[in-house]
Amino acid sequence: MQNLKSRKRRKLKAEINVVPYIDVMLVLLIIFMVTAPLLNLGVDIQLPQSAAKAIQNDKEPAVVSVDEGGALFLTLGASQREPIDADTLVKKVSAFVRENPQVPVLVAGDQRADYGKIYQAMVLLQSAGVPKVGLMSQPVQAEQAH
């Protein structure tokens, strides 16, 4: 009789084993924590400081940024800043200005950048058909004003 009891079948469990799901969730969490800061990479540009008054404008400007090394970046309206080459810059800005003729076009040149690189960006904008180009700067800090 004891032999029959030891051969008794075990009851099936109707529970879900969640341990593998927790492992997958933790791996995904780590992946997202590592990649999230990489999605918001920007260009470190130190704008020159000036006491000029800010321009009031209703439309989002098109901004061409020139970093310290002379690389070009384009921000059209409210879109993300993207690295761009000279030919693509002329094409995109030309099309953007044709669609929005009153939009301001600004050049944000790093103060450490070579003046020639900023000037080349302005020449590219002129060849794209932009009638007026503005230069961006930062307001003078209170400590440096004295």
From TrEMBL:
Organism domain of life: Bacteria
Stated role: Part of the Tol-Pal system, which plays a role in outer membrane invagination during cell division and is important for maintaining outer membrane integrity.
Membrane topology: Single-pass membrane protein
GO biological process entries: cell division; protein transport
Gene: tolR
Subunit and interaction comment: The Tol-Pal system is composed of five core proteins: the inner membrane proteins TolA, TolQ and TolR, the periplasmic protein TolB and the outer membrane protein Pal. They form a network linking the inner and outer membranes and the peptidoglycan layer.
InterPro entries: ExbD (IPR003400), Tol-Pal_TolR (IPR014168)
Pfam family, one: ExbD
Lineage: Bacteria, Pseudomonadati, Pseudomonadota, Gammaproteobacteria, Lysobacterales
GO cellular component: plasma membrane
Organism: Dokdonella fugitiva
Cellular location(s): Cell inner membrane; Cell membrane
Entry's transmembrane regions: 21-43
Major localization class: membrane
GO MF entry, a single one: transmembrane transporter activity
Protein name: Tol-Pal system protein TolR
PANTHER family given in the database record: EXBD MEMBRANE COMPONENT OF PMF-DRIVEN MACROMOLECULE IMPORT SYSTEM, TOL-PAL SYSTEM PROTEIN TOLR
Keywords: Cell cycle, Cell division, Cell inner membrane, Cell membrane, Membrane, Transmembrane, Transmembrane helix
Similarity-based family: Belongs to the ExbD/TolR family.
